[in-house]
Design brief:
By secondary structure, the chain is α/β, with parallel strands linked by helices. 48% of the residues lie in helices and 16% in strands. It has twelve helices and twelve strands. Adenosine-5'-diphosphate binds next to helix 4 and helix 5. It comes from Hibiscus sabdariffa (roselle).
Length: 286
């Protein structure tokens, strides 16, 4: 069941309206923006919430599906989905100066230093700002309260969505993750059927299989081995409590227990975000 904690649905919907109806948001922000604040090597313009798109954060353990849901919402709301894990993997693929150092850290399931991750994120935010982006759905950042405080220096986060699944499901999902080496799309070959205990509902998730064109090109992330996944979950659990408390104390945290796979969870998530009618109107218009 989706549960909302100390979160006003009005804040989410008012930001969505802004995305929809504020055609001149970028121009208005240009003239009314605050002085840029530094993050990493770049200065990012902090904008008044009435002059920009949504700035949301997705929290959740490895394998919970933050990327999947953030990416769907990104398409729905027209705001970029920025995943720091993707920025790290791009850096690894580029064989740049820090790639070797990163490979070792990522393959051990450890966190990259704040300095490196903030440098990658600030570069991405600055590039987005130059293209007129004024909002984002952040996935994988912040992961610690220190990162949250740094983010607060440059952005006023509207909402933090905390996606949750039982740990046994998370491990199965991480081990079932596959990426098409050609098109980059994510799939999952795990077929999950966990019985509910003590009256709580069970969870079933059908595999998310690739089309036949991707089937022979599937690759597994090098950090999705059982040992590394368990280490990533351990680190996540250690850091997540204070981070959740940080946003809970600000009244921004929305807890969402995923009821199953995408077909069950997506409509419930939209409902919790008060975006269900918005999606219906959009699909009728399309
Ligand atoms: P997952 O959520 O499945 O653990 P991600 O794709 O978000 O994986 O991240 C992959 C790896 O990139 C992490 O294990 C970590 O090494 C690094 N990373 C991503 N985001 C951060 C962050 N905010 N701080 C430190 N390291 C990060």
């Amino acid at each position: 069941m989706a549960a909302i904690t100390r979160f006003s649905k009005h804040s989410a919907i008012s930001h969505v309206r802004r995305c929809l109806y504020s055609a001149s948001a970028a121009a208005a922000a240009e003239s009314n923006s605050h002085a840029p604040s530094p993050i990493g090597n770049y200065k990012i313009t902090r904008r008044d919430p009435s002059e920009r798109n949504v700035q949301w954060v997705f929290l959740g353990s490895p394998g919970v599906g933050k990327g999947t849901y953030a990416s769907r919402l990104s398409t729905l709301l027209g705001v970029p989905h920025i995943a720091t894990g993707d920025l790290v993997r791009e850096e690894l693929a580029s064989s740049g100066p820090i790639a070797k150092q990163l490979t070792e850290i990522v393959n051990q399931g450890k966190l990259v230093s704040d300095e490196i991750i903030i440098s990658l994120l600030s570069k991405r935010l600055k590039a987005g700002e130059a293209k007129g982006e004024s909002g984002f759905l952040l996935d994988g950042f912040p992961r610690t309260t220190n990162q949250a405080e740094i983010l607060e220096g440059v952005a006023d986060i509207d909402l933090v969505v905390n996606l949750r699944l039982p740990e046994s499901v998370l491990i199965e999902k991480c081990l079932g993750r596959r990426i098409c080496g050609q098109c980059g799309k994510n799939f999952n070959v795990a077929s999950i059927d966990v019985k509910g205990l003590n009256g709580s509902p069970g969870i079933s998730m059908a595999p998310l299989l690739p089309p036949s064109s991707c089937m022979s090109k599937l690759v597994t992330r090098s950090d999705d081995t059982e040992q590394v996944v368990k280490e990533r979950l351990r680190i996540y659990n250690e850091k997540s409590q204070p981070l959740e408390d940080y946003y809970r104390n600000q009244g921004k945290l929305m807890e969402f227990d995923l009821p199953g796979g995408i077909p069950e969870s997506w409509p419930k998530l939209l409902e919790a975000l008060n975006l269900d009618e918005f999606e219906e109107r959009r699909s009728v218009a399309a």
